[in-house]
Amino acid sequence: MQTIVLATQKGGAGKSTLAIGLARAAIQAGHSVRLIETDMQGTLSSWQGRRAYAEPLVEPVYDARDVEQHLQSLAHDGTTLAIVDTASGTSAVTSAAIRHADLCLIPARPSIADIESAAATLSVVRACKKPFAFVLNQTPARGRRVDNAAAAIGDDTTSGMADVVAKPFIAMRNDHQDALSAGLAVSEFAPEGKSADEIRSLWQWVEAKLNSGITDHAEAGGKLADTRPSAQAARDADASWDACL
Q1: Is the dihedral of CA 147, 151, 154, 157 positive or negative?
Q2: How far out from the chain centre does Cα 8 lie?
Q3: Among 43, 75, 168, 244, which is most exposed with the fewest C-beta within 10 angstroms?
Q4: Going edge to edge, which strands form the sheet with 57-60?
Q5: Are 110 and 139 in contact (CB under 8 A)?
Q6: Per residue in 8-57, pLDDT tens?
Q7: pLDDT per position as a tens digit, 223-241
Q8: Domain boundaries, the chain
Q9: Over the range 182-212, which residues count as b (16 or more CB within 10 Å of their CB) and which as e?
Q10: Are the C-beta atoms of 84 and 113 separated by less than 8 Å?
Q11: Which residue(s) pair with 137 in the sheet?
């Protein structure tokens, strides 16, 4: 099983809508998916309460000590992809989720405030030695602001932009919020719309990123390294936000 964690310091970046959209796109691509909600605000649980369809199931996990065991249980039951939606800010449960991620996605709106606030999340992700990518979300349909934001992220991360900025950017459209209100993913609400196309394309980019990590390690001639701490080690560190630092 692979695990994607959506995390960022700043609220309102669209983690929950991205988690829902990616989950549905992954299901359409053949994955068995679970959404894990670590944000006690309960956006995903409320969405599921409005939903007429079972999949993807939302499973709340609010205690950092339960993250590893829950992911292991999902893998044992045949889940192929877990997507973790985290709260904004710093928390022990977000840190625990990052430690168990195969890929961290950091949503950011194309503003200097969002990009600067992502630094705290990025420092934890790097300390945990986890692959990551920024997702420029809620962007204008066109304009230089988006390109400037992407360039700023590339400069700040000192990596190739192709590796750290996911494509495509997700434009701000009413379909996302209307779908959330209806208990749907955007690809269900308006399957032929531009927003649905962007989310499906974003999933293809994310899946390629996940698979490239596996391929690269296989070509190196070894098993995938398990960089996750044991449950006891996590408890000893009290699952604090800076446990990877």
Answers
A1: negative
A2: 9
A3: 75
A4: 57-60, 33-37, 81-85, 2-6, 103-108, 132-139, 170-171
A5: yes
A6: 988 889 999 999 999 999 999 999 999 999 999 999 999 999 999 989 99
A7: 333 433 334 333 333 333 4
A8: 2-226
A9: ebbbbbbbbeeeebbebbbebbeebbebbee
A10: no
A11: 170
What is the torsional sign of CA 94, 95, 97, 101? Answer: positive
Q: Which pLDDT does position 89 carry in this prediction?
A: 86
Kindly report whether the peptide bond that precedes residue 110 is cis, defined as omega within 30 degrees of 0.
no
Name the superfamily (CATH) of residues 2-226. Answer: P-loop containing nucleotide triphosphate hydrolases (3.40.50.300)
Whole-model pTM: value is: 0.83
Q: Which of 176, 174, 165, 180 is nearest to 199 (CA)?
A: 176
* pLDDT greater at residue 220 or residue 49: 49
CA-to-CA distance for 2 and 4, rounded, in angstroms?
7
Q: Please give the structure tokens belonging to residue 64.
A: 């950092």
Please give the structure tokens belonging to residue 88: 């904004």
In single-letter form, the type of residue at position 174 comes to: N
User: CA dihedral defined by 98, 22, 41, 84, rounded to 10 degrees?
Assistant: -20
pLDDT by residue (tens digit) across 68-112?
999 999 999 999 999 999 999 889 999 999 999 999 999 998 888
